[in-house]
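Morning F.,

Quick status update on the modeling queue. The single chain you submitted on Monday has been processed. Sequence for confirmation:
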Amino acid sequence: MSTNIASKVVVITGASSGLGEATARHLGAAGASLVLAARRGDRLATLAAEIRAKGGKVEVVVADVSRRADVEALVQKAVASFGRIDVMINNAGLMAIAPMSEAKVEEWERMIDINIKGVLYGIAAALPVFQKQGTGHFINIASVAGVKVFSPGGTVYSGTKFAVRAISEGLRHETGGAIRTTVISPGAVDSELKLGSSHAQSAKVVGEFYQQAIPADSVARAIAYAIEQPADVDINEIVLRPTVQEF
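Structure tokens below.
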């Protein structure tokens, strides 16, 4: 067990499935105190019960990251429960793949609300806590699609993930020294993310692409690696994908 993880309070959004759920299990097993957020309270309750049964410390908050008040309440709950926050993992995301010619504007707006504004709300809520403490760690989940545009159909999704990487780099410049910033950019990893496309042909392509997916625990281990480093080491970006993935 790493004492660098065991001593930390970690907040995770999008924790009811996929990367967030796997990360909660992994960090909980390593001794972290967890505050888990998602829209599906029943899933959160089941996960929390599993972690507590193994001796873990966990609180849950039903929250939609596209609502600023929800994210502020999440951070307040973490501080009230554990007295501090050491790591804020902005994980919640939506991938709705479709050609731009389909003009799925509502889906574009939803991706912007979750993938960009949700991250910004997490930063806005946790940053004052980190500054008051004099320490903290943001971990923002981007994507390989934020390194190279996923095409066809992924233009807007890629745009949101490029934004996450840009925001994270700017945050690092502005707050570096005591506050660490890490971007995790996964490729095809098994999660519900692949189910977000309403355009039938694009959904088919995404389903085929994700046949090469690696387990969500792969990302959990990368997150743990970033967290467990000594305070003077800031892992700024990790890109990981299946060995067989070309994109």
